[in-house]
Amino acid sequence: MTGRGARELAHIQIDDDGPLCPCGGRGCLVHAGSALVSSVQSAYEETLTYERILALAAAGDPGPARLLGDFGRRVGRPLADICTMLNPEAVIVGGAGGPHILDGIREAINRHAAPPAAAAVTVVPSATGDHADLLGAVALARR
What we know:
This protein has 6 helices and 2 strands, in the order H-H-H-E-H-H-E-H. The chain has helices at 32-41, 50-58, 62-86, 98-112, 115-120, 132-142, and strands at residues 90-93, 122-125. Strands 1-2 form a two-stranded parallel sheet. The longest helix has 25 residues, at 62-86. This is ROK family protein.
């Protein structure tokens, strides 16, 4: 893939039958947040947001915690292949991921990547947190 969208992990396919993405793919990671909210909403009377699901999981609610771990494993599966192919030192997870997602990603990498690649990679949250897009735009504007 060249041009727009190249090297963007947001366009890794995690759902074979997912929604069509502007990149031309289907079921890209970029659409996963809304799917997460939809999948858990029926269990709660309050209207949920992705941020609220993270807060519920952090407070020890087992449903959202499990959902976020499952999501991490889904994302981690294609990342495991990338680790096997490229042997990176780290997988840096941007945005509001939380520990459940990071643990799920690490579990999938350990299970599916070649053992030497899995042992060599660390899975860490981004130091920029939810502000990566904004900081990138500022850096680009300054150039």
